[in-house]
């Protein structure tokens, strides 16, 4: 590699030379104002292979129920792709107009509501399978309760109703208490009326008001000293002629006809019929308690989720029952299957991609993630090349339940899920470098050889003052790293940009820097591989803008500029640059063959570059694509993982530095030497002085040259104590010799002291 360096560093930093550029390519400087290149999206390139081929079965969820029927969902067993259904007691399931229900969804009568509390001051609704509509929250409201056909609330001491019809919303006044009485709190309501707590002369009165006879409410009983908290979950608390109330400690059933109150045992009760109150709770199964009194009835093994239509209890199957939703009169009664488990299979989605020599890894999970946190599984496949075509091996599981769709790997290492790492032997463990803020979790990281770069905003924050940490996987200790700006790591070199727009490369061995871009506009991303470095200017906001993308050959000291738009991520190998672009409105994956001027559209990418990363690290990019040598992998707009082998490009293998090998040995000496490419031909030669005493095979498919020397000669004889040296040689599949970390054909090796 050849860096352009400052005069102050020239004496300490010699020019280096990496592998040759593409045959016939002339690197020239290309000036001009960048404009978006609207290249027609292409079909998948020839030879593209799918990555995620796993399918998962369907799943049912019981969400809510009212006297009108029940609300349930079908989706994949790992979540996502949900559809919502309504079913009357003896009716056929009908689809709900909502394509997504949040945790704030509720049902009352024939109406399903979604409280858009986090996004807007509105309420969306649908009456059974009618159209989806949206109303603004009532103004100047006090208290609010979802009831059949709308929302009851208190304003100016008057109970009002926001009527939600298929044609729109209107507000009507329902009831105003007599003078001297305050409308304190609405407990809930059904088709016939509502329950209201009023305050007169310091005394609370709980009453049921029928819409057709508001002048004659029914006074309801409640235990002495019982101050209810009228909360409303997805299922209404007025159902089957009773009010379900709680004071935070005790739960009671209060009949709307003024009859005696039933105090319920502990159980988080949530659904009622005229004869039982029901609940489900993880680990406890389905539980019912008779209204008339008696012991709790239990059906163990029933998953969470229960609803009632006023006559029957609905829940998922228990042990010995076919999968589906069942109708019962109690937990221990005979059950009738009313909704069988669908037979549909769902494809999984891929959210993050890592490519390294001989292997592609990816996070695999639901197609539509939840808003806050989602667990994915990490999968991996071996790769091989035959006749210029890519082939992938069977899908293997690395780890389940990973919360980040971010992966990074090199020379057999794979980091994922914050603080987990898979080594070249396939063993998964902790990285052992926990973050002070998150404990086990880690911010973004980049692997190169036996080092890991850890930093906030690897891609997005040119002005960041957050410190970079480069962790030595040999010692598990931090070493000095540049701070601020987009960063990339390649072996013994780290490239980064500062807030002044300069792009620099630091040699971690010599601790000197080269300047490759003078001060100017801020940089949004950088990438480094061998003699090649790339950067792209930064847009002033998240809105895509026209940008200049630069690829520099540091050995020839020439560069090419390209027009792009909406680019946030760069991936560089010895033959290609891969990057995202938004030429119009859709985000796509493009490549440039190094030393050429053409951009090639590979395919689509997820619209949001942060989609699937983590809710903990706001704005960080997910690895939606990655590149190693000529192998490119990506996840498309539908999160379907794909990979393809690009055209051949000559790039010699390079030692990535930081070999893991002890300086001395008695009976065993293990060595792990990382290389930028796989070495199908590789040898470690041991010398005593100038005498060759042992040759060990280090051929590999993952770029990690590994051997263990037992301290003996090739014939098995014991060798004397003393100082030995070793030399690593090898060739890649293109028959190019292994080079030292600086790109020169100098010795890759070191010394060993044999103590026994």
Tell me about this structure:
The chain is mainly beta and 756 residues long. 1% of the residues lie in helices and 47% in strands. It has one helix and 66 strands. The strands form 17 sheets. Strands 32, 33, 34, 35 and 36 form a five-stranded antiparallel beta sheet that branches.
Provide key terms for this protein.
756 residues; five-stranded antiparallel β-sheet; 1 helix; 66 strands; 1% helix; disordered N terminus; FlgD Ig-like domain-containing protein; signal
Number of strands: 66
Average pLDDT score: 85
- What best-fitting shape do the alpha-carbon axes yield? elongated
Report on the biggest sheet. 5 strands, antiparallel
Radius of gyration: 33 Å
Q: Helix proportion of residues, in percent?
A: under 10%
Query: Segments where pLDDT lies below 50 for 5+ residues?
Result: 1-38, 433-444, 456-465, 614-619
Number of helices: 1
Keywords: Signal
Signal peptide: 1-27
Protein name: FlgD Ig-like domain-containing protein
Q: In terms of topology, how is this protein built?
A:
Blueprint: H1 7-10, E1 49-50, E2 55-56, E3 58-66, E4 69-76, E5 83-87, E6 94-95, E7 105-108, E8 111-115, E9 122-127, E10 133-136, E11 142-147, E12 150-155, E13 158-165, E14 168-175, E15 181-189, E16 193-200, E17 203-210, E18 213-219, E19 238-239, E20 242-246, E21 251-255, E22 262-264, E23 271-272, E24 276-281, E25 285-290, E26 297-299, E27 306-308, E28 313-316, E29 324-328, E30 336-340, E31 346-347, E32 349-356, E33 359-365, E34 376-386, E35 389-392, E36 396-402, E37 407-410, E38 413-416, E39 420-422, E40 428-430, E41 445-448, E42 451-454, E43 469-472, E44 477-479, E45 487-490, E46 493-497, E47 503-507, E48 512-517, E49 523-529, E50 532-537, E51 546-553, E52 558-565, E53 570-572, E54 576-581, E55 588-593, E56 600-604, E57 625-628, E58 631-635, E59 641-645, E60 664-665, E61 669-674, E62 681-688, E63 691-697, E64 704-709, E65 722-731, E66 749-754
Parallel strand pairs: 60-66
Antiparallel strand pairs: 1-59, 2-31, 3-4, 4-5, 5-6, 7-8, 8-9, 9-10, 11-12, 12-13, 13-14, 15-16, 16-17, 17-18, 19-20, 20-21, 21-22, 23-24, 24-25, 25-26, 27-28, 28-29, 29-30, 32-33, 33-34, 34-35, 34-36, 37-38, 38-39, 39-40, 41-42, 42-43, 43-44, 45-46, 46-47, 47-48, 49-50, 50-51, 51-52, 53-54, ...
């Amino acid at each position: 590699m050849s860096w352009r360096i400052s005069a102050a560093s020239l004496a300490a930093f010699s020019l280096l030379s990496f592998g040759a550029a593409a045959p016939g390519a002339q690197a020239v400087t290309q000036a001009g104002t960048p404009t978006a290149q609207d290249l027609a999206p292409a079909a998948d390139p020839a030879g593209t292979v799918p990555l995620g081929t796993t399918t998962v079965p369907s799943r049912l969820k019981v969400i809510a129920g009212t006297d009108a029927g029940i609300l349930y969902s079908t989706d994949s067993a790992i979540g996502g792709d949900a559809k919502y259904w309504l079913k009357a007691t003896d009716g056929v399931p009908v689809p709900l107009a909502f394509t997504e229900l949040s945790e704030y969804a509720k049902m009352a009568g024939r109406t399903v509501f979604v409280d858009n509390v986090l996004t807007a001051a509105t309420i969306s609704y649908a009456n059974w399978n009618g159209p989806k509509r949206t109303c603004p929250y009532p103004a100047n409201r006090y208290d609010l309760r979802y009831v059949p056909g709308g929302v009851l609330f208190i304003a100016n001491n008057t109970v009002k109703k926001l009527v939600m019809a298929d044609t729109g919303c209107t507000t009507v006044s329902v009831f105003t208490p007599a003078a001297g009485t305050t409308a304190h709190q609405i407990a809930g309501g059904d088709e016939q009326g509502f329950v209201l707590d009023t305050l007169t002369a310091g005394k609370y009165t709980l009453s049921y008001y029928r819409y057709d006879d508001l002048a004659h409410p029914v006074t309801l009983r409640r235990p002495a000293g019982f101050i209810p908290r009228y909360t409303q979950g997805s299922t209404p608390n007025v159902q089957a002629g009773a009010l379900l109330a709680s004071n935070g400690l005790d739960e009671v059933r209060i009949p709307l006809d003024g009859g005696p109150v039933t105090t319920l045992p502990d159980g988080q009760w949530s659904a009622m019929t005229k004869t039982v109150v029901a609940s489900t709770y993880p680990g406890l199964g389905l539980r019912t308690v008779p209204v008339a009194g008696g012991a709790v009835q239990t059906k163990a093994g029933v998953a969470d989720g229960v609803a009632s239509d006023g006559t029957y209890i609905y829940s998922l199957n228990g042990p010995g029952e076919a999968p589906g939703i069942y109708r019962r009169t109690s937990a221990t009664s005979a059950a009738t299957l009313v909704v069988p488990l669908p037979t549909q299979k769902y494809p999984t989605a891929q959210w993050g991609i890592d490519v390294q020599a001989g292997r592609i890894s990816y996070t695999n999970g639901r197609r539509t993630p939840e808003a806050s946190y989602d667990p994915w599984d990490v999968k991996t496949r071996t790769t091989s090349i035959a006749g210029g075509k890519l082939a992938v091996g069977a899908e293997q599981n690395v780890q389940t339940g990973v919360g980040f769709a971010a992966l990074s790997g090199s020379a057999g290492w794979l980091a994922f899920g914050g603080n987990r790492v898979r080594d070249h032997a396939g063993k998964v463990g902790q990285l052992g470098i926990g973050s002070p803020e998150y404990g086990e979790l880690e911010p973004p990281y980049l692997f190169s050889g036996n080092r890991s770069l850890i930093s906030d905003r690897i891609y997005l924050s040119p002005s960041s003052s957050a410190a970079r940490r480069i962790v030595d996987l040999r010692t598990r200790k931090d070493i000095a790293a540049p701070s601020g700006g987009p960063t990339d790591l390649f072996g013994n070199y780290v490239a980064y940009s500062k807030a002044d727009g300069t792009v620099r490369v630091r040699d971690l061995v010599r601790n000197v820097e080269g300047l490759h871009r003078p001060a100017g506009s801020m940089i949004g991303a950088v990438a480094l591989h061998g003699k090649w470095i790339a950067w792209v200017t930064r847009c002033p906001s998240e809105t895509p803008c026209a940008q200049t993308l630069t690829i520099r050959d540091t050995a020839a000291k020439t560069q090419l500029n390209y027009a792009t738009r909406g680019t946030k991520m760069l991936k560089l190998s010895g033959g290609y640059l891969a990057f995202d672009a938004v030429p119009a409105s859709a985000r796509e994956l493009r490549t440039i063959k190094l030393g050429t001027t053409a951009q090639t559209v590979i395919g689509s990418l997820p619209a949001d570059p942060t989609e699937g990363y983590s809710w903990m690290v706001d704005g960080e990019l997910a690895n939606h694509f990655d590149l190693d040598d000529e192998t490119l992998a990506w996840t498309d707009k539908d999160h379907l993982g794909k990979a393809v082998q690009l055209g051949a490009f000559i790039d010699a293998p390079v030692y990535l530095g930081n070999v893991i090998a002890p300086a001395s040995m008695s009976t065993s000496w293990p060595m792990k030497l990382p290389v930028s490419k796989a070495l199908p031909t590789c040898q470690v030669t041991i010398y005593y002085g100038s005498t060759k005493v042992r040759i060990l095979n280090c051929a590999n498919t993952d770029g990690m040259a590994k051997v263990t020397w037992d301290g003996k000669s090739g014939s098995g004889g014991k060798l004397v104590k003393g100082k030995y040296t070793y030399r690593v040689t090898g060739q890649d599949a293109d028959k190019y010799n292994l080079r030292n970390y600086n790109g020169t054909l100098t010795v890759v090796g070191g010394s060993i002291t044999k103590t026994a």
